[in-house]
């Protein structure tokens, strides 16, 4: 057996792990930090242009080998398992939640409150934005006040988005450029944006933040030791105390040689799925329900947000393809008056070519060739399509669960996770009214410029999922405290998405990072 | 290796190498000169005329280069939301050769070559070929269903065609300074 010793062992290699490792190395220089990630390191930024080209021309995946074929979950939203995690190919959206997200119980009598004061979290939002070099514009809503400016000004609005902003604001809603972790000029060893416009797949210049850059910068000066392709299968508790003493792992290429990580502190930074999974897998005679699970809530209250989308057709002319990954956001409905029916959502607007793409046959079925096809296409490009989407605040029930699925096992015989989202009764009761409200907002937006909604649909999964190890002050109703320290094991922390009690109504990554940075000081103290 | 071991290994070879893999190894990986000539002949029919003969031929040649760059068994984008592992299928080249040969045969059966056929006959032949191949629309990128619809997708889904359609220098997905995107795209210079 190979043994590695460290002061802190971070399990997982995604964005929260990168931010935590970086912050810990600053707070406690010289600390021995081990980062253990099941997937590979794909540290070949120089090849990203070629990967992007292959993805565009052949549909190939632009992150070769970023998955483990037999380490997959039911109900997961991405197969990626690599150093950098899902943030290898995120869009870079860096929206903040709002105070309402943290006070759902006290303001609306819904779900639960987070055990954090807004002003406390807000400081860490600023810190997260600084590290990710977020480009943004202050919100027009006073409630969204900031204690520090964005590190960069907003990503300039394309001509298309300027046109759509003028159109959308005729509804009375105020829109801002979406805050994004995208360099306008080189920063942090990454290039500036040159509108490759494939942020959500791969960014050849590195302008859109991805954690592989942070890891490389931590590895070179030996601030951390990264163990990639190493799957942690269980955590081991001291025989007499409740402290974690080891993480048992296997290197994917050397399964015959078990590895043990011994550390003073263990941090599970494995995202919304694999964090709960590891705690449940680590069951023993002494802990038959897994670790940190005296409340029975590990793997419960799995959350995220629903989404409703629409396409509008308007008369104003745009030119699809200018900057398709940039968008507008309105935070108008982040707030809900306490005496009104509860509904919270963000509102996003993108340029679109939906319904205006080239087609092979005319409306009457005639095969179109050459000039005919171009003429048909051109005839359908007058005016614009607009993509609209709202992330809707929905709240999980305790039965919104991650469980171990004995029918699906990896090569080592470990049962794989199965995630099934469920809403609480209040969410279900207001579902129809929420949908009607959102469609009403879309309809109001569409009125200007002779617009009309041409289609709508609802997502069939929850985006930006979290939960499974929710934080709270009461060990009977939560898994960890506000810093992610588990109630049952003083040297075991969980950070990021799994600790969120509810999923908010806008992209979650910045919140996961802010929470993690807040945890860092507490972990460093330990 | 001892002689007996070598003989045992050779004897076992047919069992180790399946008929399918031998068949696949025997498949052409490159379009034949005749297929390329036919593709170039058909290109002006399915591409916009204002491209001109030379540009249409160049697009056909770029498409041929695309076929050479195709890789089998490579992981495709997993997707997001409901991800799944998919790998690229066998090279489309053998199918393309058959399809181009069939179109050439159809033209010959009408006592002609492709370029000499009238527009409606060309349309009828392509319509029948697409229907036989199960083509339902213009794919987002060449998909291997039919060589000609893939050539059309190769061009009409490109940034160049998008600019042509809008008569504007949009340069979709082409690396460029972000400031350029803040202005209304300039009209194409003719």
Keywords:
heterodimer, A: 526 residues, alpha+beta, seven-stranded mixed sheet, seven-stranded antiparallel sheet, 16 strands, globular, B: mainly alpha
How would you explain this protein's 3D organization?
- The complex is a heterodimer of chains A (526) and B (190).
- Chain A is an alpha+beta fold.
- In chain A, strand 1, helix 1 and strand 2 form a beta-alpha-beta unit.
- The longest helix of chain A is centred in the last third of the chain and has 23 residues.
- Chain A is globular.
- Chain B is mainly α and 190 residues long.
- The model of chain B has no long low-confidence stretch (mean pLDDT 90).
- Classes of the chains: A alpha+beta (526), B mainly alpha (190).
- At the A-B interface, helix 2 and helix 9 of A face helix 3, helix 6, helix 7 and helix 8 of B.
Shape of chain A: globular
**Class inferred from helices and paired strands of chain A:** alpha+beta
- Morphology call of chain B: globular
Note the main sheet of chain B.
none
Total number of beta strands of chain A: 16
Helix content of chain B: 40-55%
Number of helices of chain A: 11
Total beta strand runs of chain B? 0
Task: Note the topology.
The complex is a heterodimer of chains A (526) and B (190).
Chain A: E1 2-11, H1 15-27, E2 33-36, H2 48-58, H3 99-102, H4 104-108, H5 118-132, H6 159-168, E3 176-177, H7 211-219, E4 225-227, E5 230-237, E6 244-251, E7 254-268, H8 271-281, E8 300-314, E9 328-330, E10 347-352, H9 371-379, E11 384-392, E12 401-409, E13 415-420, H10 425-447, E14 452-458, E15 463-468, E16 492-494, H11 509-525
Parallel strand pairs in A: 1-2, 1-7, 2-4, 7-16
Antiparallel strand pairs in A: 3-9, 5-6, 6-7, 8-11, 8-14, 8-15, 9-10, 10-11, 12-13
Helix pairs in contact in A: 1-7, 1-11, 5-11
Chain B: H1 3-16, H2 19-26, H3 33-46, H4 52-69, H5 93-109, H6 119-133, H7 147-156, H8 159-166
Helix pairs in contact in B: 3-4, 3-5, 3-7
């Amino acid at each position: 057996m190979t043994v590695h010793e460290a002061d802190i062992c971070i399990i997982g290699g995604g964005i929260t792990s990168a931010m935590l490792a970086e912050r810990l190395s600053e707070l406690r220089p010289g600390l021995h930090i081990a980062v253990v990630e099941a997937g590979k390191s794909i540290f070949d930024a120089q090849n990203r242009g070629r990967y992007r080209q292959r993805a565009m021309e052949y549909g190939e995946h632009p992150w070769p080998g970023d998955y483990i074929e037999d380490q997959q979950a039911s109900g997961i939203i991405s197969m990626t398992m690599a150093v950098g995690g899902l943030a290898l190919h995120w869009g870079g959206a860096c929206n903040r939640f709002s105070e309402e997200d943290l006070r759902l119980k006290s303001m609306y009598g819904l779900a639960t409150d987070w055990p954090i004061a807004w002003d406390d979290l807000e400081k860490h939002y600023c810190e997260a934005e600084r590290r990710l070099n977020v480009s943004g514009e202050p919100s027009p809503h006073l409630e969204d006040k900031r204690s520090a400016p964005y590190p960069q000004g907003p990503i300039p609005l394309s001509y298309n988005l300027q046109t759509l902003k003028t159109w959308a604001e005729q509804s009375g809603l105020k829109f801002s450029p979406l805050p994004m972790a995208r360099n306008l000029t080189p920063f942090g060893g990454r290039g500036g944006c040159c509108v490759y416009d494939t942020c959500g797949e791969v960014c050849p210049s590195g302008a859109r933040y991805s954690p592989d850059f942070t890891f490389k910068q931590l590895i070179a000066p030996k601030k951390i030791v990264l163990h990639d392709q190493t799957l942690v299968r269980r955590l081991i508790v001291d025989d007499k105390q409740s402290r974690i003493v080891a993480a048992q792992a296997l290197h994917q290429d050397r399964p015959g040689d078990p590895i043990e990580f011994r550390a003073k502190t263990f941090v599970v930074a494995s995202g919304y799925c694999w964090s709960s999974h590891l705690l449940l897998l680590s069951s023993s005679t002494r802990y038959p329900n897994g670790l940190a699970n005296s409340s029975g809530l590990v793997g419960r209250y799995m959350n995220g947000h629903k989404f409703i989308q629409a396409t509008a057709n308007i008369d104003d002319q745009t030119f699809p393809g200018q900057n398709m990954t940039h968008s507008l956001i309105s935070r108008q409905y982040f707030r809900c008056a306490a005496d009104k029916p509860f509904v919270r959502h963000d509102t996003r607007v993108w340029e679109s070519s939906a319904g205006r793409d080239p087609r092979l046959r005319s409306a009457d079925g005639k095969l179109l060739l050459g000039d005919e096809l171009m003429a048909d296409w051109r005839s359908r490009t007058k005016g614009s399509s607009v993509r609209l989407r709202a992330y809707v605040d929905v709240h999980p029930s305790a039965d919104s669960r991650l469980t171990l699925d004995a029918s699906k096992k990896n090569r080592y015989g470990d049962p794989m996770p199965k995630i099934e989202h469920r809403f609480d009764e209040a969410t279900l009761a207001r579902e129809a009214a929420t949908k009607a409200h959102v469609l009403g907002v879309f309809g109001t937006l569409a009125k200007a410029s002779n617009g009309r909604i041409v289609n709508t649909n609802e997502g069939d999964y929850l985006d930006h999922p979290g939960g499974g190890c929710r934080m709270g002050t009461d060990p009977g109703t939560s898994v960890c405290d506000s810093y992610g320290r588990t109630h049952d094991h003083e040297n075991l922390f969980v950070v990021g998405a799994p600790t969120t009690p509810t999923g908010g109504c806008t992209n979650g990554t910045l919140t996961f990072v802010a929470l993690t940075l807040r945890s860092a000081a507490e972990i460093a103290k330990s | 290796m001892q002689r007996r071991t070598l003989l045992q290994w050779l004897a076992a070879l047919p069992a180790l190498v399946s008929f399918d893999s031998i068949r696949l190894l025997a498949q052409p990986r490159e379009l034949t000169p005749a297929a390329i000539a036919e593709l170039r002949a058909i290109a002006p029919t399915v591409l916009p005329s204002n491209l001109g003969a030379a540009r249409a031929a160049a697009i056909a040649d770029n498409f041929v280069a695309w076929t050479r760059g195709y890789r089998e068994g490579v992981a495709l984008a997993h997707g997001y939301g409901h991800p799944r592992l998919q790998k690229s299928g066998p090279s489309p080249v053998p199918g393309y050769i058959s399809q181009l040969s069939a179109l050439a045969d159809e033209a010959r059966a009408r006592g002609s070559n492709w370029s000499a056929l009238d527009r409606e006959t060309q349309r009828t032949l392509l319509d029948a070929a697409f229907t036989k191949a199960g083509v339902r629309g213009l794919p987002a990128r060449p998909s291997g269903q039919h060589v000609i619809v893939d050539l059309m997708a190769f061009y009409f889904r490109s940034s160049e065609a998008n600019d042509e359609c809008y008569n504007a220098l949009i340069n979709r997905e082409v690396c460029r300074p972000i400031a350029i995107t803040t202005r209304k795209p300039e009209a194409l210079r003719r």
